[in-house]
Write a structure and sequence with these properties.
Number of strands of chain B: 0
Order of helices and strands of chain B: H
Distance between the termini of chain A: 45 Å
Oligomer: heterodimer
Largest sheet of chain B: none
Helix content of chain A: 55-70%
Number of strands of chain A: 5
């Protein structure tokens, strides 16, 4: 069905497209400067993920022409790129384990799959903001608010990281890793938790309350704790000012949204994203694992969570097609699925140590 | 080249911010159109 676009919407999609072209320009120029596909560390992978989310949105926008999807998808992409920018941005040579053409094939395909699935999240979130009754307290309002809180925590992370970066805060630690070797670690935020058997080397720096076991990365776990703290403060300030749930504040934006259309967009995004994700995060990943480590599967945390993500979306499609889980149930599943993707991106990459902890 | 790359990323980030505001404007305009439409209370004659 051909829909007439408003001038604002037309201008918005043009600006989005120009932004997307600029980001492709970033990708190409960084590739030339580094000599390899810029998807080799957390900054590069996450900006690529944000870029492909915008690309997926542009594709789906031209299919459905719904401006409201832009209001929810683009801020997610902006948050993802802002989040990425908090990690080291220097161009560095590839470590030997990553020197393979499979880096481009596996990582880019997995990121494209995840970004299409992220559009499903945006459509699901719009569906829930419109359909969940905000006039009374319920489990649904609680969980919808939990999603909003998480998004606010991401803003908190960006603010806290930028703040300590501007202050040039640094604290050096020596610590003992899981193989018993003494190593050094630099914190860029005051240490609430320290690495395993840590010793603070920087005088006058903040001393950690306790040390973490060697399986967890102290610096990165500390960052997660700071982000949660900043999120709680920001959310508290928001509630004090607006005196209502974030979901309720956003509800007027989705007043005229067609719920069936959002349901269809969410479903179609999973239908497209799921096979791409399967190819990139499982099949190509296993081929590269066989070449690099001589085994297809090794139960590395990243591999396990890629499998969990895949099983979840397989269950999503199964429940929808065979049990008729449409509408609100499907929207909740789309939101939870994206939560699993983010868990894999943030917690598995940052907090749990494994073969994929390159950042 | 690395600096150009970084500038292009900033440009993209800024353009996405602008686009979000413009999409917001598109929704608002749609809402205003709804407000402007009037129901006159007359029924169409049957037959």
């Amino acid at each position: 069905m051909e829909k007439k676009q408003s001038k604002w919407a037309l201008l918005a999609i043009w600006v989005t497209t120009i932004g997307f072209i600029a980001q492709i320009g970033y990708f190409i120029t960084r590739w030339i400067a580094s000599g390899h596909a810029p998807v080799s560390n957390l900054f590069e992978f996450t900006t690529f993920f944000g870029m492909m989310l915008v690309g997926a949105f542009i594709g789906i926008y031209y299919m459905y022409k719904t401006p409201v999807l832009g209001v929810f998808t683009l801020p997610v992409a902006i948050l993802i790129i802002a989040y990425a920018s908090m990690f080291p941005r220097e161009i560095s040579p590839l470590i030997p384990a990553l020197q393979s053409d499979w880096l481009h094939i596996h990582v880019t395909t997995a990121a494209i799959g995840q970004s299409i699935l992220a559009v499903s999240f945006a459509a699901g979130l719009i569906y829930l903001i419109k359909s969940v009754d905000q006039s009374k307290r319920s489990a649904k309002t609680f969980w919808l608010e939990a999603i909003m809180f998480f998004l606010i925590c991401t803003v908190g992370f960006v603010l806290v990281s930028s703040g300590f970066k501007a202050m040039d805060y640094k604290a050096e630690f020596t610590w003992v890793d899981k193989s018993g070797q003494t190593a050094e670690m630099e914190y860029t935020m005051p240490a609430l938790v320290g690495p395993h058997e840590s010793k603070l080397e920087t005088p006058d720096a903040f001393k950690p309350f306790f040390d973490l076991p060697p399986i967890l990365s102290g610096r990165k776990a500390n960052t997660v704790i700071w982000s949660l703290g900043a999120g709680i403060v920001l959310y508290g300030i928001y509630r004090l000012i607006f005196r209502k749930r974030a979901g309720a504040l956003l509800q007027p934006l989705v007043k005229n949204v067609n719920l069936d259309l959002m349901d269809e967009i969410s479903y179609r995004a999973v239908m497209i994203g799921f096979p791409v994700f399967t190819l990139g995060a499982l099949i190509f990943a296993m081929i590269w694992a066989q070449i690099a480590w001589s085994r297809f599967w090794g139960w590395d945390p990243k591999e396990v969570w890629a499998l969990v993500t895949w099983l979840f979306y397989a269950a999503f499609l199964h429940l929808r097609l065979s049990k008729g889980w449409q509408g609100e149930k499907s929207a909740w599943l789309a939101v939870i699925g994206f939560g699993i993707i983010l868990f894999n991106l943030i917690v598995v990459n940052l907090v749990i140590k494994g073969l994929h902890s390159y950042a | 080249m690395a600096e150009l790359s970084s500038n292009l990323l900033y440009a993209a980030f800024f353009l996405y911010l602008v686009a979000t505001v413009l999409f917001g404007g598109a929704i608002k305009q749609k809402k205003d159109k709804w407000k402007r439409s009037k129901v006159n209370g007359h029924f169409l004659p049957s037959g």
